[in-house]
Write a structure and sequence with these properties.
Shape: globular
Distance between the termini: 28 Å
Order of helices and strands: HEHEEEE
Mean pLDDT: 94
Strand content: 15-25%
Number of helices: 2
Low-confidence stretches: none
Number of domains: 1
Oligomer: single chain
Largest sheet: 5 strands, antiparallel
Radius of gyration: 12 Å
Amino acid sequence: MDPKLLEIMCCPITRAALQQIDAVMLEKVNARIQDGTLRYKDNTVVDAALSEGLITQDGKMLYRIDDDIPIMLPEKAIPLQAE
C-alpha cells in the first residue's frame, strides 16, 4: 500500500491511525477465520482468509484489503478484542 495513502487513512469508527498487519498477526487472524470464530462488526462470520489488511495501531480493529483495495466500511471492520 502506498505509504502516503496509509498516512492519511484512519479507522472510520474510532479515528485511530492504521498500519499494515504483520505476518505473525495475519497468521493468527487467519487461524481464527478458519476456526469460524471471527466476526465482522455487523456480526456476520468472516469466512475468507486475508492476504493483507490494515489494523489500528491499538490492535483493536482490522480492515481487510481485497485486490489492493482497503475495505473501510464500518460494518466490515473486524473487531479483534471484545467490545
